[in-house]
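thought: user wants a sequence for this fold. calling inverse folding tool.
action: design(structure=
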């Protein structure tokens, strides 16, 4: 039945009957029993906003000398520091402002960088850029992961303040490229320069051929290719601009619709978005994807490699190289001039046999005089003179009869050698021509010198000097050890293409971190990897997840473990 067909609504009255009775009486309120109200206040201020306000308030705070206190925090702010850590920070910051960079922890550096982002410590943006560059330069060797963050934050700083600073300077400092939209922006700027000067790292992103994977590049031609390819591209682009302007415009100034990308400002920094906003629109031409330009650069690189292979006598040639005859002649003329000129500049090595014989004679005389000694000590002195000739440590007997191992130079300055026999006057300075041999040949005497290696205890002071020299000269060994420790390998043959691309983008220490996260005790082992590379476990995890988002479109690490749904993908990741 429709609502329209219903009749009028009827109500029924029900009488319950009986007396209503006396209701419940409500007592009067006692004023003394009323509890006074309490107001509760809370702040909606974010962590970033609180940091920005406190940083401005502490901008001029000067620190007194204080001892260093370790500090490690993922989101480093003033609130995370203890009182002792704050005292060290403000003392260290005062020293940094004076150009003195003491040893400190990475989290202190991040707080200082956050301050610079929030306009603390500078008034002119160019000064702010200089301070960012100086703190980066001072600590990038100690903390290599600064490159990863400061290259993007410094680029944001340049864009926000519209500084006339080429972004290529930032990429060359970091040793790696910026995001795609910024590389497009920099390429468009470089293409307007005359003459065109594009560094090798940018030419590689414009080429469909990776010359660095070439056998010629790896085995023999790296120096030649890195030197000549940018110059040849510059020469060819200049030729097109002057002689074939239409083709130059088609390649370097094409009519392509500009593209706007919203860039997330100061990503992963403690940054108050009220200052500059959260997103920055970047409008540029996507020149990296311009097919004619990519083909042109690719063919020039391949043709140049073939010509250098031919010049160096390297077997094999790249096939399918197609290049305009005018550019081909240009490249050939350039390489003929450069390679022939380089060979002509090399001085011819001429050995003057008369002077060489004279040098050998003088050397024999000097050596014989150095070995003159009282009866009974000739053998010991012979052993001392072998040390400088061998340029290595030698064992000698001191007057007390105990053996000592000494630095090669110490042998000539020992107590027994302080009073050498008198020498006839001789001019030991020899005027040698270009390329002539000036080293003294004492190998024939070294063969007859007897160096007895015995069980003598080395002199601790001399060994300390040797160890100090060795430790000073072998500082890069730390990075070698770190590299050799990260030996994880991942077989992605059974996975999809995006997983293979994800694996290719991972650095060795990131692969090692993923392997550790699949194990039973990830925390301690991951800390060791982070320590070797001057970073923190949380930063490594974020880097891996960033690469995963770019390739497979999802996060592979949840918390401090591999996400459960992706565990099977890492079963072939072995240590």
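)
observation: tool returned 575 residues.
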């Amino acid at each position: 039945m429709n609502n329209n067909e219903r009749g009028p609504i009827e109500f029924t009255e029900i009488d319950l009957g009986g007396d209503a009775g006396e209701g419940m009486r409500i007592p009067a309120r006692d004023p003394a029993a009323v509890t006074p109200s309490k107001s509760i206040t809370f702040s909606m201020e974010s962590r970033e906003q609180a940091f920005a306000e406190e940083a401005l308030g502490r901008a001029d705070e000067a620190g007194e000398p204080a001892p260093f206190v370790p500090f490690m925090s993922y989101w480093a702010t003033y609130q995370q520091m203890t009182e002792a850590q704050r005292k060290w920070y403000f003392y260290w910051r005062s020293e940094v402002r004076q150009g003195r960079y003491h040893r400190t922890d990475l989290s202190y550096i991040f707080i200082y960088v956050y301050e610079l982002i929030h306009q603390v410590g500078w008034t002119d943006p160019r000064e702010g850029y200089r301070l960012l560059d100086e703190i980066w330069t001072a600590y990038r060797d100690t903390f290599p992961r600064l490159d990863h963050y400061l290259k993007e934050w410094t680029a944001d700083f340049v864009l926000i303040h519209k500084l006339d600073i080429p972004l290529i300077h930032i990429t060359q400092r970091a040793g790696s490229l910026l995001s795609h939209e910024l590389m497009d922006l920099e390429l468009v700027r470089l293409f307007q320069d005359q003459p065109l000067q594009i560094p090798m790292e940018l030419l590689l992103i414009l080429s469909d051929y990776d010359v660095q994977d070439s056998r010629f590049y790896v085995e023999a031609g790296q120096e030649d290719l890195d030197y000549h390819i940018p110059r040849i591209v510059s020469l060819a682009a200049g030729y097109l601009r002057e002689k074939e302007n239409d083709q130059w415009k088609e390649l370097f100034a094409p009519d392509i619709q500009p593209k706007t990308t919203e860039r997330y400002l100061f990503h992963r920094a403690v940054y108050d978005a009220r200052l500059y906003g959260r997103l920055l629109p970047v409008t540029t031409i996507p020149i990296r994807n311009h097919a004619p330009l990519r083909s042109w650069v690719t063919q020039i690189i391949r043709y140049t490699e073939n010509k250098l292979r031919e010049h160096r006598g390297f077997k094999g040639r790249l096939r399918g190289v197609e290049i305009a005859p005018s550019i081909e002649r240009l490249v050939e003329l350039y390489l003929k001039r450069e390679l022939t000129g380089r060979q002509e500049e090399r001085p011819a090595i001429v050995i003057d046999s008369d002077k060489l014989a004279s040098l050998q004679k003088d050397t024999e005389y000097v050596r014989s005089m150095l070995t003159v000694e009282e009866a009974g000590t000739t053998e010991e002195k012979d052993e001392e003179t072998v040390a400088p000739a061998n340029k290595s440590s030698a064992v000698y007997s001191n007057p007390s009869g105990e053996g000592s191992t000494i630095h090669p130079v110490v042998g000539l300055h020992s107590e027994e050698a302080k009073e050498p026999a008198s020498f006839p006057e001789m001019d030991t300075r020899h005027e040698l021509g270009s390329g002539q041999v000036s080293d003294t040949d004492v190998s024939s005497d070294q063969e007859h010198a007897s160096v007895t290696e015995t069980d003598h205890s080395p002199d601790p002071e001399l060994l300390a000097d040797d160890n100090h020299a060795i430790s000073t000269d072998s500082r890069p060994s730390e990075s070698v050890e770190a590299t050799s420790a990260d030996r994880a390998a991942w077989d992605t043959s059974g996975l999809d293409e995006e997983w293979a691309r994800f694996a290719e983008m991972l650095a060795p220490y990131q692969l090692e971190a993923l392997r550790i996260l699949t194990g039973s005790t990830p925390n301690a082992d991951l800390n060791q990897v982070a320590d070797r590379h001057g970073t923190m476990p949380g930063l490594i995890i974020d880097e891996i997840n960033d690469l995963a988002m770019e390739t497979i479109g999802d996060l592979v690490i949840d918390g401090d473990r591999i996400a459960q749904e992706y565990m099977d993908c890492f079963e072939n990741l072995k240590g």
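thought: summarizing for user.
answer: Here is the designed sequence. Residues 373-484 have pLDDT under 50 and may be disordered.
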